[in-house]
Structures are given as C-alpha cells and as structure tokens.
Design a protein that fits this description.
This protein is mostly helical. It has one domain. 69% of the residues lie in helices and 0% in strands. α1 runs parallel beside α5, α5 runs antiparallel to α8 and α6 packs antiparallel against α7. The longest helix is centred in the N-terminal third of the chain and has 32 residues. It is globular, with a radius of gyration of 18 Å. The two termini are 23 Å apart.
C-alpha cells in the first residue's frame, strides 16, 4: 500500500490568500524532501482548481472580497507554474523532471484537463466579468480537473511515499486529509456562489451539503482521531491551531448549511463566505505546515 504524504514546504504563495509554505524542520535526505514536495504541490493543485472556479463565480455575481481582482489570476499563475514544475522540473521549486512513467501519464491527463478548463474561463472572462451562462461549463471542466488531480495525488503519494521510511502510515494519511481540507473550503465557497447565481441549484445544494459535512467530519477526526484511520492532533501546537480553525469554521458552516437547505441567501452570509471562509483556508494551510513537526527524523 502506498503512503500518502502532504507536507508544507517553501514554495511560491498565493499572495492574496497568504498561502505560504514553510521549510521542513525535520532532517531527511534530499530525495525524501523532494518526494514530500511533489506530493504537497500535487495536493495544492486540487485546491487551486476549485479556487479558480470560485473566483469565476464571484466575478459573475459581484461578490466582494478583499482581493477579488487578483484572486483568479494568482491561482491560475500558481497552477500553471506548479504543473510545469511537476512535469518538467523547476530548480526554484526544488523539483527535477518527473521520472515515473505512470505519474507522467497522470500529469499529461491533468495538462489536457487544464487546457480545456483554462480555455473555458479565459473565453468567458471579459472586462473582469464572467457571464452567468458560462458558469456551468467552467464548473464542469473544473470538477474534471479536480478528479484527475486527485488521481495524480494518489499515484504520487503511492510512488514516492517510501522515500520517508520512518513515516507512520496513519500520520501520512492524517497529513493528506489535513491538506485536502484546503480544497474543501474553496469547493464549498464555489457551490454556495453557484446556488446564489441560480446555476444548477438543486444539484449544488446536494454537493454543498456533502462538502460542508466532509470538512466538519474531517476537522473533528483531525482533532480527536479516528481509530486506524486518522491520528488525533499529535502536539499542542496542532491541537491549538485546530481549535482556532473549529471556531473560525462556525460562521461559514452555518451560512453554508443554510444555503444547502434552501434558505434565502443574505448579504451577511455572502460576506461570511467571501471573507471569513478565506480565513479558514489560511488557517488550515498553516495547520498543514505544522504537521511537519510530527514527522519522525530518520534513525
């Protein structure tokens, strides 16, 4: 069985979301550090796919954020840069060209998805506005990209996981789940916005209810553990950070659940999703970085 590993490493940031990455504090071989970096960047791509779709919807409905004009372009640039680095290497990112044939094929599929996805939203984007009829197509191609990116993350984790032989499987699974939470914040915000925009409302209410529930259940599992599947917070720093996230999640969770249940969306709820949920993303990204302190050093 492959090991799943997502750690935060020194990478380019999404400036508008303060999604920085920190240098690993543990002592590992250069090969192990690169393996961890590959899985981390692959995992981050999942979040970016949904962040772009969310930004397109925000531009369409006019939802105000502190960085709305830059959020989409920042995410697009980081996705493109990271995809090229994963495929062909990038010295600044600490990656060489991908050598594994299966992962190369998976990344090739992602590149094809990305071409279709980027064509959809770039064609729709005009003078900073995305017309509502274009949102369904943007969302569909973004979800296809997410599916193939998920498969790529799994393959990368399986192929490279053994580079850290001291990593307990339950810890690597836990870090992977913590990393996935970043994507859920963006997927939930996107689904909320699509409901607000009147795009496939019934389907997006079902999706939003599931996304919100998955974030909540995973957060609880990260705090308290789940026998054989998720490690409870392994140190005080992570435990405190998860408690902060739980508190920050309360407002967005209530707004998301209200939208999923069919209640009318208010301006106050729009503000919560546009701004408070962004804080949850930043906090969750910080938590992923903190898990590196729980990775055992090689004996």
């Amino acid at each position: 069985m492959g090991r799943h590993l997502v750690t935060s490493l020194a990478m380019a940031a999404i400036a508008t979301a303060q999604l920085g990455f920190v240098t690993p504090a543990f002592s590992q071989s250069p090969e192990a550090i690169e393996a961890a970096r590959r899985v981390d960047i692959s995992g981050r791509q999942r979040m970016l796919s949904q962040r772009i779709s969310k930004a397109a919807c925000f531009l369409s409905v006019g939802m105000e954020t502190n960085d709305a004009p830059n959020q989409m372009q920042d995410a697009v640039t980081l996705f493109e840069t990271s995809l090229q680095a994963l495929r062909r290497g990038d010295e600044a990112m600490g990656l060489g060209p991908e050598q594994n044939a299966e992962i190369r094929l998976a990344l090739q599929a992602v590149a094809a998805d990305w071409e279709a996805f980027s064509r959809n939203f770039q064609m729709a984007l005009s003078n900073g506005v995305v017309p509502r009829p274009a949102l369904a197509g943007i969302d569909a191609s973004g979800l296809q990209l997410l599916d193939d990116m998920n498969r790529t993350v799994n393959k990368t984790a399986s192929m490279y996981g053994d580079a850290l032989p001291n990593m307990p499987l339950i810890l690597s699974l836990t870090i992977d789940l913590a990393g996935r939470q970043r994507m859920f914040t963006q997927k939930a915000a996107k689904e909320f916005c699509l409901i607000d925009a009147g795009v496939e409302v019934d389907e997006n209410r079902v999706r939003l209810a599931k996304t919100t529930q998955l974030f909540t259940l995973t957060l609880g599992a990260l705090q308290n553990g789940m026998m054989g599947m998720v490690m409870a917070a392994p140190n005080d720093e992570i435990r405190d950070q998860l408690a902060i996230i739980n508190e920050a999640w309360a407002g967005p969770k209530a707004a998301l659940e209200a939208a999923a249940s069919g209640e009318s969306i208010t301006d106050a709820q729009r503000n919560i999703i546009a701004n408070d949920l962004e804080r949850v993303l930043v906090l969750m990204n910080e938590a992923v970085g903190m898990y590196e302190g729980a990775i055992p050093a090689p004996e």
